[in-house]
Amino acid sequence: MSISVAPLDPGPYLDFLAQRERASFLQTPAWAEVKPDWRGQRLGWYEAGRLVGVGSVLLRPIPKLGRSLAYLPEGPVLDWDAIDPAAYLRPLVRHLRDLGAFAVRIGPTVVRRRWLAPTIKAALADDTVESLSQVRPDQVEAAGERLVASLAESGWRCQLTESGFAAGQPAFNFQLPLAGRDEADLLAGMNQLWRRNIKKADQAGLTVRTGQSADLADFHRLYLETAARDGFRPRPLTYFETMWRALRAEDPDRIRLYLAEHEGDLVAGATWVKLGRQVWYSYGASATAKRQVRGSNAIQWRMMRDALAAGATVYDLRGITPGLGADDPEVGLIQFKVGTGGQAVEYVGEWDLVLNRPLYRAFQLYVDRAALAARLRGLPAALGRSLRRSHLARSGPPVQPAPASHPAPSDRPAPADAVPPDSSQSVAVRSGQSLSARRSARLAGDGRTEESVPLLGSEPEETGKRVRRTAPDAPLHPSQPPAPVGPSQPVESQAEADGEVGCAPVQGSEPLAGAVGAAEAGAGRTDESTPAPGSAPEEVV
User: Fold this and answer.
1) Closest listed residue to residue 518, CA positions, set 14, 158, 170, 117
2) Are 337 and 526 in contact (CB under 8 A)?
3) Is the four-CA dihedral 217, 527, 529, 294 of positive or negative sign?
């Protein structure tokens, strides 16, 4: 079997995506245009001259060295359940190495585990359960398990923070299945609070309309208000203007803007993205005033109904953190989303293959130090000096990038222990705010669509080890029967349910580590408050 990878023109690329029921919009050619700091290239996979897969690669260069990090956000788009992953990834790695890549990162949207709403609700009510990873899934997908095992065996290393966010995209997402359902069925599947809030919005006279490019400025003002209230670093207006222009040029209905208004006041806004038969809730915003009119519930309900009318089979509410404990700062996020009656899904995660370790580590330090310096410029002088000293003490002296004449790596994939641990861009530092990796990931909100570079300083003490997803003192939630694997295979043991080999959280100790782009996204955030234990949030944004 001869498989090759080569550049592909936009027309055939989009034609291939159009034949797929489901593929991420981050893999469209248009999305590459949204990322000004990256250089994009469209690739096609060929088997016996036939196009069998595509992938949009973003290349982030090291200044002056001509070497790049190659990243396929939520890609590539391949028939993962029917192929040998290693055979298809080898030509990709060769092609990207020839382009000067020092590392390759992929993030296939292949589901590994699923938790249905009743399972999640039972876990939320159980004081002994702290994380979704402790809860026995309702289904374990055979294709996802095979892919995880293949990547690990081929030397790829999973990048996952303790919060459950991968370095670029969230590993845990929340989806609402739409296939075979109508509006009445969707509404009946929601919890009482959701139905009540939708009714309140209607009784209050709130209206939801679709906007145009001229409305982006109003949406952005509301988004800035949300960012200030919830503590994430907002995107500039130009980012949304570029996203609107690029996505709509590719398909006039690729992106929509929804605006919820009450008596002339804008109270909520959100962006809606569609590709194939899947719709995503992307970025969201809400006003602090007029919370009682439930603008966010109303806008979500309108987008769900429009997704159904557009023929979508999945409405994707994007990322969640897996924390379920009553004291978890982001537990309200999953409580809000589980109220829709949907399901939590865990993708296989993002995986790195390092082709040049010295450059990979140097690039981590380069980006981290630049990001840290930018954030510290806004701090009081004394606090800034203290944090600089602390960070430098942990990271050590600057690592000099390898010279451009550094020998090219061999064609053989790097061994499993050759990949440095994940590290991430530091978050916006605010006085009195925790700087833990877990908290920085949460600042992103839920619908992150970042392709920012992960990046951070020191290595944790344990690297290159495969560990079980569930710690020995964190047993699976006992209320559920063993999950089926794929269509009919039962789970034979807890090890199979957990995933003996897989994408385990990075065991880092870097206080400034956080998911990449977390402080900069704030995308699709739908809950700014932590509700009382065991209850759904009274207000969502």
Assistant:
1) 170
2) yes
3) positive
At residue 327's C-alpha, the angle toward residues 386 and 533, to 5°, is 155
Among 421, 365, 419, CA closest to 397: 365
Burial (0-12, 13-18, 19+ Cβ within 10 Å), 477: buried
Burial classification of residue 421, based on how many CB atoms lie within 10 Å of its CB (0-12 exposed, 13-18 middle, 19 or more buried):
buried
| pLDDT tens column, 222-279 | 999 999 998 889 999 999 999 999 999 999 999 999 999 999 999 999 999 999 999 9
Q: Which residues pair with 285 in a beta bridge?
A: 269
State how beta strands 68-72 and 101-106 pair: parallel
This prediction has a pTM of 0.73
Which tens digits make up the pLDDT trace of 356-390? 999 988 877 776 676 566 556 555 544 445 444 54
What CA–CA distances, in Å, run from 474 to 132, 347, 453, 465?
11, 21, 32, 19
SS (H, E, C) 448-505: CCCCCCCCCCCCCCCCCCCCCCCCCCCCCECCCCCCEECCCEECCCHHHHHCCCCCCC
User: Which string of b and e fits 483-514 if b means at least 16 CB within 10 Å?
Assistant: bbbeeeeebeeeebbbbbbbbbbbebebbbbb
Residue 440 exposure: Cα atoms within 13 Å on the Cβ side: 27
Question: Which amino acid, one-letter code, is at 173?
Answer: N
Q: Checking phi first, is residue 493 left (phi over 0); if not, alpha (psi -120 to 50) or beta? A: beta
Distance (Å, rounded) from C-alpha 29 to C-alpha 444?
25
β-bridge mates for residue 43, sequence order: 7, 55
Report DSSP state, residue 380: -
Give the contacts of 295 (CB within 8 A, at least 6 positions apart): 201, 206, 260, 262, 267, 268, 286, 287
Residue pair 72/107 in contact (Cβ under 8 Å)? The answer is yes
- Report whether 300 contacts 201 (CB < 8 A): no
Q: Tokens standing for 114?
A: 């699923």
